[in-house]
Amino acid sequence: MPKYANASAEATEFLRQKTGSSQLECYTYIDPNRAEDSFFIVKTSNKVIHVSFSEMSYEATNYQSLLEGLYRAIYE
User: Fold this and answer.
1) What is the largest CA-CA distance in the chain?
2) Residue 13 region, left (φ>0) first, then alpha (ψ -120 to 50), else beta?
Protein backbone atom coordinates (compact mmCIF):
# COMPACT_ATOMS: atom_id res chain seq x y z
CA MET A 1 0.00 0.00 0.00
CA PRO A 2 1.40 3.45 -0.85
CA LYS A 3 2.42 5.83 1.88
CA TYR A 4 1.90 9.57 1.49
CA ALA A 5 4.30 12.09 2.97
CA ASN A 6 3.04 15.44 4.22
CA ALA A 7 4.85 18.76 4.04
CA SER A 8 6.82 19.45 7.20
CA ALA A 9 7.28 23.16 7.89
CA GLU A 10 9.50 22.50 10.92
CA ALA A 11 11.83 20.12 9.10
CA THR A 12 11.96 22.38 6.04
CA GLU A 13 12.87 25.42 8.14
CA PHE A 14 15.46 23.46 10.13
CA LEU A 15 17.21 22.13 7.01
CA ARG A 16 17.02 25.51 5.25
CA GLN A 17 18.77 27.15 8.21
CA LYS A 18 21.42 24.40 8.41
CA THR A 19 22.15 24.31 4.67
CA GLY A 20 21.42 27.89 3.56
CA SER A 21 19.21 26.56 0.75
CA SER A 22 15.94 28.44 0.25
CA GLN A 23 14.74 25.91 -2.36
CA LEU A 24 14.87 22.86 -0.10
CA GLU A 25 11.54 21.27 0.91
CA CYS A 26 10.95 18.48 3.39
CA TYR A 27 8.09 15.99 3.69
CA THR A 28 7.51 13.31 6.28
CA TYR A 29 5.51 10.16 6.83
CA ILE A 30 5.26 9.00 10.44
CA ASP A 31 3.76 5.61 11.24
CA PRO A 32 2.86 5.71 14.96
CA ASN A 33 2.82 1.90 15.17
CA ARG A 34 5.97 1.09 13.18
CA ALA A 35 8.79 3.63 13.37
CA GLU A 36 10.77 1.60 10.83
CA ASP A 37 8.11 2.45 8.22
CA SER A 38 8.46 6.20 8.86
CA PHE A 39 10.55 8.35 6.52
CA PHE A 40 11.49 11.80 5.28
CA ILE A 41 11.57 12.98 1.69
CA VAL A 42 13.87 15.95 1.08
CA LYS A 43 13.54 17.76 -2.23
CA THR A 44 16.45 19.95 -3.27
CA SER A 45 16.92 21.95 -6.46
CA ASN A 46 18.35 18.94 -8.28
CA LYS A 47 17.41 15.77 -6.38
CA VAL A 48 14.90 13.97 -4.19
CA ILE A 49 16.27 12.15 -1.13
CA HIS A 50 14.45 9.41 0.80
CA VAL A 51 15.64 8.84 4.38
CA SER A 52 14.04 6.14 6.48
CA PHE A 53 13.89 6.73 10.23
CA SER A 54 15.71 3.39 10.59
CA GLU A 55 18.70 4.90 8.73
CA MET A 56 19.12 7.67 11.31
CA SER A 57 20.33 7.75 14.88
CA TYR A 58 18.11 9.90 17.09
CA GLU A 59 16.36 10.02 20.45
CA ALA A 60 12.81 8.78 19.82
CA THR A 61 11.19 11.13 22.35
CA ASN A 62 12.87 14.28 21.00
CA TYR A 63 11.72 15.82 17.68
CA GLN A 64 14.77 18.11 17.52
CA SER A 65 16.97 15.02 17.79
CA LEU A 66 15.05 13.50 14.86
CA LEU A 67 15.70 16.59 12.71
CA GLU A 68 19.37 16.57 13.62
CA GLY A 69 19.51 12.87 12.72
CA LEU A 70 18.01 13.70 9.34
CA TYR A 71 20.61 16.38 8.71
CA ARG A 72 23.45 14.03 9.71
CA ALA A 73 22.10 11.23 7.50
CA ILE A 74 22.13 13.47 4.43
CA TYR A 75 25.00 15.90 4.91
CA GLU A 76 27.58 14.24 7.18
Assistant:
1) 35
2) alpha
